[in-house]
Amino acid sequence: MQAASLLARHLGCRRGDRWLFHGVDIALSSGEALHLVAPNGVGKSSLMRILAGLLPASTLDGPPAHVEWNGAVGLLDERHGLDMGQPLGEALAFWARLDGPVPQDALAALGLTPLLDVPVRYLSTGQKKRAALARLIGQNAPNWLLDEPLNGLDVDACALVEDIIYEHCAAGGTCIIASHQPLSLPDLRRMDLAEYAL
Ligand SMILES: Nc1ncnc2c1ncn2[C@@H]1O[C@H](COP(=O)(O)OP(=O)(O)OP(=O)(O)O)[C@@H](O)[C@H]1O
């Protein structure tokens, strides 16, 4: 795996006229995972999008916001990005041509192998989430941003996602997980975004 790390400093977020949070610093080294928590609406998804480079950070005052990744970044959120009109196998193949293939053992572990002929629009909520995870794995990015990765998943699939995160970090990756659900991972750091809310 490529080198992985994150240094983010002085991050703030303003949506419309409203400030959500400010003064967020995050440093993650290879192998580290961070659980991002906060009540609804505090700005977890907004912070994830800032870290992914999809939303500009704001600063209330003081030094400018700064996000520095070592290695590529993969974002998993509610937008799975898979063509609803295509069978799952073809929808994943589209991304495989850009990112690289999803390993067969990952497809099997995620329970997707028997679903490759099923149109994405017919997949259940949890099956679509599993498919989005497969796409993320295919990206081979060393840094992961997972926004509510356990939503819609059954108990066994939640445990599987924890295993996948564990293996990703054990291989030297980083992972930030925004989730309302408890996570069982060794050495998991925790950040409560509400402490930075305005
Ligand atoms: N495009 C937008 N324009 C203006 N405000 C927005 C936009 N997107 C989100 N917001 C607002 O920003 C706030 C934070 O939203 P965000 O989704 O980041 O919170 P969250 O902590 O992830 O919430 P949840 O736990 O419910 O997922 C909310 O009040 C939301 O209404």
Automatic annotation (TrEMBL):
Molecular function GO terms recorded: ATP binding; ATP hydrolysis activity; transmembrane transporter activity
Stretches assigned to the ABC transporter domain: 1-198
Organism: Novosphingobium umbonatum
Pfam families xrefs: ABC_tran
Class of the enzyme per the UniProt entry, highest EC level: hydrolase
EC annotation from Swiss-Prot or TrEMBL: 3.6.3.41
The UniProt record lists the keyword Methyltransferase: no
Keywords: ATP-binding, Cytochrome c-type biogenesis, Hydrolase, Membrane, Nucleotide-binding, Translocase, Transport
SUPFAM superfamilies tied to this protein: P-loop containing nucleoside triphosphate hydrolases
Protein name: Heme ABC exporter ATP-binding protein CcmA
